[in-house]
């Protein structure tokens, strides 16, 4: 395992090393950011995708260690106390967090590191990593977002209502981010992300 590199040591070596960059992808639940991320990684295997830790249950087809690290609430809280997360948030009754060590090491060794995280976590990253590039994925309309969430058929009516209420708040925060991309046509949105990352 590579040694943990404190943020200070990364900053002081910036002139001597070709450092990578942190890319943050966020947007409301149901906007398609996970699907965009998977396609982006298929096209660009050189990107380092930071797998998040969560306390929610796996959805059908999700694989532990690939889609998320699925852990218990008590284990998450233990890791949180130990300072193991670069950012974390609670969303729809579950915790989500980004493991600190792997991200810092990959940036140090010149990788483009991509995080797909919730708004609260993205704000934490902006505060601690001002040089991070932040991208906000928007739906073409709120009605379309609701349709996408309902079409997944994975949530109770109560959970859908919570997600939609949260989505309204998140969409209002889009201007806080460096780039806003509307996921209306999937290929267009994916190409827009590629243009931002590799122009």
TrEMBL record:
Q: Which organism is it from?
A: Nostoc commune NIES-4072
Q: Which residues form a coiled coil?
A: none
Cellular component GO terms, alphabetical:
cytosol
Q: List the InterPro entries.
A: GK/Ca_channel_bsu, Guanylate_kin-like_dom, Guanylate_kinase, Guanylate_kinase_CS, P-loop_NTPase
Q: Where in the cell is it found?
A: Cytoplasm
Q: Identify the EC number(s).
A: 2.7.4.8
Q: What is this protein called?
A: Guanylate kinase
What are the protein's UniProt keywords?
A: ATP-binding, Cytoplasm, Kinase, Nucleotide-binding, Transferase
Q: Which family does the entry's similarity section mention? A: Belongs to the guanylate kinase family.
Q: Which residues form the signal peptide?
A: none
Q: Which domain of life is it from?
A: Bacteria
Q: Where does ATP bind?
A: 27-34
Q: What is its main location?
A: cytoplasm
Described by its record, this protein's role is as follows: Essential for recycling GMP and indirectly, cGMP.
* One GO MF term: ATP binding
Q: Which SUPFAM superfamilies match?
A: P-loop containing nucleoside triphosphate hydrolases
Reactions this protein catalyses: GMP + ATP = GDP + ADP
User: Domain Guanylate kinase-like: where?
Assistant: 20-198
